Amino acid sequence: MKENKSFWDSYASSFDAIYGTKNSVFNSLINKLFRGAMRLRFEKTIQLITENNVSVIDIGCGPGHFCFALAKNGDKEILGVDYSDTMINLASEHAKELGIDKKLRFEVVNFLDYQPGRKFDYSIMMGFIEYFENPELVVKKAIEITNRTVMISFPISGGLLAFQRKIRYKRRCFLRLYSHDDIKKMFDKLNIRSYTIEKIERDFFVTITLD
């Protein structure tokens, strides 16, 4: 975890550009070609949380772009949490720039140690679980703090893009990629029965239904 925190603190600004609007023409092209799954899971998540008066926690919120989109889409209680101080600082700055800082909150937390003292209607974990050596603990924790729905992205193992990603992250931080069977076996072990696994480009978009 310490290695991952150092990596994400240093990578925060570059990661922010993936969802932001300050990309160069070259970076915009790269995003369209190789980061389509990130945009698809972003759009799908926002489309699945449309009600007003619901609570949402974005786990591993990074610079906060999921939170901002949700805050602009109706009246919701939104909390973004991340292990990286730098990411949370970016998220807080962006919220103020957008004039929505009163509509959401951000906290620096170690998720596995986090004790919110309540449950949320929705939990989001996009681009998060692949950096944990014990993903079962992460999924179990998310379920414990959620009333209705948990949404998780799992990067797909195999293929050129997966190989490229392994090389890019090697020695920088821990990274695990998944097959459909890997997810199913994990959920069987955790006795999770109501879920869907949808392939969206190089990710699996997984929805766990709790109510």
Could you write a compact summary of the structure shown?
The protein is globular. The chain has a seven-stranded mixed β-sheet. It is an alpha/beta fold and 211 residues long.
Structural commentary:
- The chain is α/β, with parallel strands linked by helices and 211 residues long.
- The protein has a single domain, classed as Rossmann fold (3-Layer(aba) Sandwich).
- Helices cover 44% and strands 21% of the residues.
- It is built from 8 helices and 7 strands, in the order αααβαβαββαβααββ.
- It has a 7-stranded mixed β-sheet with strand order 3-2-1-4-5-7-6.
- α1 (2-19) runs parallel beside α5.
- Mean pLDDT is 84; it is low at 7-16 and 21-34.
Based on the structure given, which CATH architecture is correct? 3-Layer(aba) Sandwich
| CATH fold naming | Rossmann fold
What class, by secondary structure content? alpha/beta
Give the CA-CA distance, first to last residue.
32 Å
> In CATH's first tier, which class applies?
Alpha Beta
Q: CATH H-level name... which superfamily?
A: Vaccinia Virus protein VP39
User: Which oligomeric form is depicted?
Assistant: single chain
Could you name the ranges where pLDDT drops below 50 across 5 or more consecutive residues? 7-16, 21-34
Number of E strands: 7
Secondary-structure element string? HHHEHEHEEHEHHEE
Portion of residues in beta strands equals: 15-25%
